[in-house]
Amino acid sequence: MSVPELVDQATAYVKQLQKRLGEYKEMKVQLEKERSEMRSKMIPPVLYMRDLGSNLEVHLITGLNMEFALSHFISILHEEGAEIISATCHHSGDRAIYTILSQAIYPRIGIATSSVQQRLKSLIS
């Protein structure tokens, strides 16, 4: 083979490698996207409640794609005798973290924590 033929062959080979590299990069991006979607679907919701006397702190951790309305949580708390002091939502990676701080409307009666927990768990499952 002559030198020009070898150069042409090497050039064609480099172009072929560049094309395959581009395809692999696209495939990598697609796989990472699918993995992220799959991980967020697989995250089971976690409910944590802390009874602070006449106050109640509720934490919920979910995947970003979970169909969830914070208003349902707030309604349940109101029905169980709690007044909402603050409610926040933070996104961290593929998770959403909700924090609700409430206090008893009537401090002598308090908040029925076990009833609240049961109702909130049934809402997220």
Automatic annotation (TrEMBL):
Question: Which InterPro entries does UniProt cross-reference here?
Answer: MASH1/Ascl1a-like (IPR015660)
Keyword Coiled coil assigned: yes
Q: Does the keyword Hydrolase apply?
A: no
Q: Which residues form a coiled coil?
A: 7-41
Alphabetized UniProt keyword annotations: Coiled coil
**GO cellular component: a single term:** RNA polymerase II transcription regulator complex
Q: Which GO terms describe its molecular function?
A: DNA-binding transcription factor activity, RNA polymerase II-specific; RNA polymerase II transcription regulatory region sequence-specific DNA binding
Task: Give me the segments passing through the membrane.
Answer: none
**Recorded superkingdom:** Eukaryota
What name does UniProt use for this protein?
BHLH domain-containing protein
The top of its lineage is:
Eukaryota, Viridiplantae, Streptophyta, Embryophyta, Tracheophyta
